[in-house]
Amino acid sequence: MRIALVADLHGNLPATEAVDADIRRRGVDTVWCLGDLVGKGPSSAETFDWAMANCAVILRGNWDEGIALRQFAANDQYYYAQLGEKRMRQLGELPLEHHAWLSGRHVRLIHGRPVMETLQSTWEPEKALDWLFEPDFDVVGYGDIHHAGLRTLNGNRILFSLGSVGDSIRVPMAQYIILTCKEGKQKAGFDLQFIYLTYDVDRAVRDAEQSPGMPQRQAYIQEVTTGVYGRVPPASKGGAV
Fold first, then answer.
1. pTM
2. Backbone angles phi, psi at 154, to 5 degrees
């Protein structure tokens, strides 16, 4: 079984389309999305619709929840208007976790936040990461951190982060993972392939420049062109950014 694991589409349609084409070319069996379908980029409705049409599993990320519950800054009305009430309701109803037995390993998939109170890197001290594996998980995978990572921990445990389809940090390319495994509790190979794709970044920039009212446009453009984080933390609901 070959599973494409994607996360953090963040309204970047050119990156999402590049990943879609690559997934189809590779002939995976299913696509699982670990959250943050929306926000940041100019095409949240389109990336939301892509996930709903193509992903067998979709988790709720921190941006999905924040927008669905109107928790962010006042100018996030930009996203509300794009998405409409039906999509926002669906965002708020997405599950926070997906658990599965794959190749004899108990796998826990989350977005990061809101399951994590504070976003944690794969390279933090092992004791700080132990809670992610409770009560009996062998593998934990997550998005949110926007750069890929892989770590083996004591007790034959695996921790990995996906990187980001639409807003990757450090390496400004569309990123996702292909997991090759066998369904069920029988021991078998467990192969994680990290994919880095070029895509039409110039188009992503044009999409942002041509989208009136887009919050923190220059921060988004900086991130997709350089991989350097540029966003100012959003003001609380009712405030101004």
1. 0.94
2. -55, 150
Which domain CATH number covers 218?
A: 3.60.21.10
> pLDDT by residue (tens digit) across 201-235?
999 999 999 999 999 999 999 999 999 999 876 54
Supply the range of the domain harboring residue 130.
Answer: 2-226
Exposure b/e, 160-191, CB count within 10 A at least 16 = b: bbbbbbbbbbeebbbbbbbbbbeeeeeebebe
In a domain, 155, yes or no: yes
- Closest by CA position to 27, among listed 52, 54, 2: 2
Contact indicator for 46, 12 with CB cutoff of 8 Å: no
195 in a structural domain? yes
Q: What phi and psi, each to the nearest 5 degrees, are found at residue 204? A: -60, -40
- Give the pLDDT confidence of 34-85 residue by residue, as tens digits: 999 999 999 999 999 999 999 999 999 999 999 999 987 777 899 999 999 9
Residue type, 156: N
- Tens digits of per-residue pLDDT, 1-14? 999 999 999 999 99
The answer to whether residue 115 is domain-embedded is: yes
Identify the DSSP state of 38.
S
**Number of domains the chain contains:** 1
R_g over Cα of the chain: 17
